[in-house]
Design brief:
Layout: H1 2-33, E1 46-51, E2 54-60, H2 69-77, E3 85-88, H3 102-109, E4 113-116, H4 128-135, E5 139-142, H5 146-152, H6 154-162, E6 166-173, E7 178-180, H7 192-203, E8 207-211, H8 212-218, E9 235-239, H9 250-253, E10 260-265, H10 270-278, E11 282-286, H11 297-306, E12 311-314, H12 318-326, E13 332-337, E14 347-348, H13 356-359, E15 364-372, E16 375-382
Parallel strand pairs: 3-4, 4-5, 6-12, 6-13, 8-9, 8-12, 9-10, 10-11
Antiparallel strand pairs: 1-2, 1-3, 7-14, 13-16, 15-16
Helix pairs in contact: 3-4
C-alpha cells in the first residue's frame, strides 16, 4: 500500500513537471515570434530562464539578429540563473560568428538544465551545441515543442538546407476563385479584418515579392500599414526582367525609407538600373531563361537567400503565383476567401492553373482555418 502511494505521488509530480515544461516552452515560443521578420539572416529564437518554478529571465533574438535570445534571457536573470533551467526554441549556437557562442554564456551562467525545442541543422552547429552543454555537465532535453519550433524556424531551416527562403504564398480570392476583374482591373476581395491580418503577416516576413505586372496595374506600396508598425515593413522585392519599374511609382518614391530590391535579368540595360539605384533601390541581376518570359525563380530565391532573406511572402499577381506553384517552390499558402463573386470574366487566382492545384494537392495539408468577419482564412502547409 505504501509503495502504491509513493508511485502515485511520483506520477503526479512527473505530470506537474511535464506541464510546467510545456508552459515555459510555450512562453519561449511566443517570445521568439516577436522577432519574426526582424532578425534575418538569423532565426527568431525565444528563451526563458526558470528557477524553482519562477521565471527569472526572458529573452528573444533582437532586430538584426543580435544579441541572441539566450544571452538576453541570461543577462536578465543574472545570478538567479545559477542552478536554473533554460527553455530555448532552438539549439544554442556553438560556433564563433558575429557573436560569441551562446553555449559559452549558458555554461558560464551556471544553468543546470536546458530544455531545447529542436536541433539546429546549420552544419556549424548540428548537435554540437547540445553536445557541449552535456559535456559541461548540464542536463539537456531536446524535442519539447519541436513541431511549433520547426514552423517558427522554417525560414532558417530552408535557407540552411536548400539555400532559399521559406516561401509563403498569399492569395485573396473571391467566392468564385477570382483575384481581379476583367481586364486585370483591381477589385476589393476581402474586408478590413482580413486585410489587417495580411499586414500582420507582412510584418512577420523578411521580404514581400510581386511581379512588375502588379506594380504597373496597382502601384502598391507593399508596406505594413498597421498603426505604429510602419517600421516593421518588409523588404519589397519586384520581379522586373526588363526594368520597366516607373520612377514615379510608390515603391521607388519610398525606396530610401523602406528597402526596395529589383530582381532583373543579367542582360537588362545599365542606364535603367543606374536610375533605380540613384533613387535608392538595389538592382539584383539573376539569370533569365532565353526562351521563356520572366526570371529563373530558383536563381531569384538563391539570390535572396544569399542576401539573408529567410521568410518570403509572395503576394502579387496570378502569373507570379502560378509560376511559383508550377515550379514547386511554395512551402505555405495563406488563402483568403471573400464572400462576394467577381464573375466568369474575372482573373483566375493561378492564371491557367486551377486553384485545386493547391487546395486539392496531396503535397499540402490544412494547418488552420479562421473566420475574419465575412471572410475566411485557410492556411496550408507542406504535408
Amino acid at each position: 500500500m505504501i509503495f502504491r502511494i509513493l508511485e502515485d505521488q511520483y506520477a503526479e509530480k512527473s505530470r506537474e513537471a511535464k506541464a510546467a515544461d510545456q508552459r515555459f516552452m510555450q512562453l519561449a515560443l511566443t517570445l521568439g515570434r516577436r522577432g519574426l521578420g526582424r532578425t534575418w539572416p538569423n532565426p527568431a529564437v525565444g528563451a526563458v530562464v526558470v528557477k524553482d518554478g519562477v521565471i527569472v529571465g526572458r529573452g528573444w533574438t533582437q532586430a538584426g539578429g543580435r544579441p541572441h535570445a539566450e544571452p538576453e534571457a541570461l543577462g536578465r536573470a543574472g545570478e538567479a540563473a545559477r542552478g536554473a533551467t533554460l527553455y530555448v526554441t532552438l539549439e544554442p549556437c556553438s560556433h564563433v560568428g558575429k557573436s560569441p557562442p551562446c553555449v559559452d554564456a549558458v555554461i558560464a551562467s551556471g544553468i543546470s538544465r536546458v530544455v531545447s525545442a529542436i536541433e539546429d541543422p546549420n552544419p556549424e552547429i548540428a548537435g554540437q551545441g547540445h553536445a557541449r552543454l552535456r559535456a559541461a555537465g548540464i542536463i539537456v532535453d531536446v524535442g519539447l515543442g519541436a513541431a511549433e519550433a520547426a514552423r517558427d524556424h522554417a525560414g532558417h531551416f530552408c535557407r540552411v538546407r536548400d539555400k532559399r527562403p521559406h516561401v509563403i504564398l498569399k492569395l485573396a480570392v473571391s467566392a468564385d476563385g477570382k483575384i481581379g476583374a476583367a481586364g486585370r482591373k483591381p477589385v476589393v476581395i476581402t474586408g478590413e479584418a482580413a486585410r489587417a491580418r495580411v499586414h500582420l503577416l507582412r510584418a512577420q516576413c523578411d521580404a514581400i515579392l510581386v511581379g512588375i505586372g502588379t506594380v504597373l496595374a496597382d502601384d502598391p506600396a507593399l508596406t505594413c500599414r498597421l498603426p505604429g508598425m510602419a517600421a516593421r515593413s518588409p523588404v519589397r522585392v519586384v520581379l522586373d526582367r526588363a526594368l520597366r519599374l516607373p520612377g514615379t511609382s510608390k515603391l521607388v518614391h519610398s525606396a530610401r525609407d523602406t528597402p526596395l530590391w529589383v530582381m532583373t535579368s543579367d542582360l537588362a540595360e545599365a542606364p535603367a538600373a543606374m536610375k533605380l539605384g540613384a533613387a535608392g533601390a538595389q538592382v539584383v541581376r539573376v539569370a533569365a531563361p532565353v526562351s521563356a518570359p520572366g526570371l529563373n525563380l530558383p536563381a531569384v530565391l538563391r539570390a535572396l537567400s544569399d542576401k539573408g532573406i529567410t521568410r518570403l511572402m509572395v503576394e502579387g499577381g496570378s502569373r507570379v503565383a502560378a509560376s511559383f506553384v508550377a515550379a514547386d517552390l511554395v512551402d505555405e499558402v495563406w488563402l483568403l476567401r471573400g464572400a462576394d463573386t467577381v464573375g466568369p470574366d474575372g482573373i483566375p487566382a493561378l492564371d491557367a492553373l486551377p486553384l485545386s492545384a493547391l487546395t486539392g494537392s496531396p503535397a499540402f495539408r490544412t494547418r488552420a482555418s479562421q473566420v475574419l468577419d465575412k471572410d475566411t482564412l485557410t492556411i496550408y502547409e507542406r504535408a
